[in-house]
Amino acid sequence: MMFIPTLVAFAAAVFVQLASGHFEIVYPEWRADSIDPGNDNISQWNYPCAGIGDDAGNRTDWPLTGGAVALKLRHPWTYIYINLGLSIQGANVTNFNMSLTPDLTNVTGKGNFCLPHLDVPMDIAEGTHASIQIVTNGQDGQDMYNCADITFRANAKVPDGVCKNDTQISAVIVGQSTADSNQSATATVTVTGQAAGSTSTSQSSSANGIAEAYTMTLAIVLGLTFVATSGMGF
Fold first, then answer.
1. What is the pTM of this model?
2. What is the pLDDT of residues 31-43, one digit of tens each?
3. pLDDT exceeds 80 at position 158
4. Which end of the chain is more exposed for a tag (fewer CB within 10 A), N or C?
5. What is the 3-state secondary structure (H, E, C) of 115-176?
6. In the 8-state DSSP scheme, what is residue 40?
7. How far apart are CA 44 and CA 192, in angstroms?
8. Which architecture does CATH list for 3-103+118-158+210-230?
9. Kind of pairing between the strands at 59-63 and 143-153
10. Separation of first and last alpha carbons in the chain
11. What are φ and ψ of residue 193, in 5° steps?
């Protein structure tokens, strides 16, 4: 019967298409590979960390005042927001109540994307354990989640070559108008083809209108995509 191999081939093609929309955390090291379909309990659509606990064992030293986050994106465009949760008395972080990107970022292009410095909005003690949550939303309309576990260290540095942006990548702050002369200098995150520390690679934390941006992002829901994918165990 020919319909069985045809169905298998169709399912494989659908998986490849869906997985191609997932993203990776390059730095800090993510908890685990959430793209690998070998574990049915892992899915980037699972809040808050793709179904992966912080007992995965990967923990990266990260600067006390804030550091870089490097991603590999697979959508033609992606909304990105990044949150932080502190570990209380060694417990698994479940409350990501601190925003490292108070201004939503819209990234255009697939490939390597890095924010060279994200400020931590409070004083953190040396040796504090925490988790960084990265949330993305692309043209499929669903939020995807990945997490990376960190330890705050005063002497932590980003490894050479980790923070880079591919030439086809560009990014803007959502909720700002570049026509406003008072805001135009901070509305664009210029990342094209530059490594961390370059004068052409920067992020502003002074943009306004984030409430409208989050409302717009969270309102993008494609029910058909959800139904098609949820039944496949991703």
1. 0.70
2. 999 987 777 789 9
3. yes
4. N
5. EEEEECCCCCCCCCEEEEEEEEECCCCCEEEEEEEEEEECCCCCCCCCCECCCCCEEEECCC
6. T
7. 27
8. Distorted Sandwich (2.70)
9. parallel
10. 28
11. 60, 25
